[in-house]
Amino acid sequence: MSWELWAAGLGGGAGAALRHLVDGAVRRMVSDRLPWGTLTVNTAGTLLLGLVFGVASATAVPPQAWALVAVGLCGALTTYSTFSHEVLALARNGRPLTAAAYAAATECCALGALGAGVLLARALPL
Predict the structure, then answer these.
(1) Rounded distance, CA 50 to CA 126, Å?
(2) What is the maximal distance between C-alpha atoms in the chain?
(3) What is the pLDDT of residue 31?
(4) Could you tell me which residues are annotated as the binding site for Na(+)?
(5) Strand, helix or coil at 78?
(6) pLDDT (0 to 100) of residue 32
(7) Is residue 112 within 8 Å of residue 46, measured between CB atoms?
(8) pTM tops 0.85, yes or no
(9) Any transmembrane segments, and where (predicted)?
(10) How far apart, in Å, are the Cα atoms of 18 and each of 9, 40, 118?
(11) Number of structural domains in the chain
(12) Per-10-residue mean pLDDT, the chain, length 126
């Protein structure tokens, strides 16, 4: 088994645990009318992925580090399946406009965070 596979698995475990902790904390702090926890982890995960991608484009990142952080941690921290389920649940519960707004906000936040992460990484003295 390759070291990259082990690194991705280790990062994935950490990302899943972090997602669970952050989602729970956000849910306790704000209203549950919208899935703010999922929006938070997806935005944070894509910001981190942008940082990693920005660093990787400026320096040599070992494949094990990429597997650990980008594939494992960011992959498990972000959650497209939960996001999709929540959009569908909002729509099925008679809130189609809220579902559409949540979907659009998630995509905008994720893409914006990814771009911000890349820009932040480029600003670092590497």
Answers:
(1) 15
(2) 50
(3) 84
(4) 75, 78
(5) coil
(6) 82
(7) no
(8) yes
(9) 34-53, 65-83, 99-121
(10) 14, 12, 22
(11) 1
(12) 94 98 96 92 98 94 95 97 97 98 98 98 93
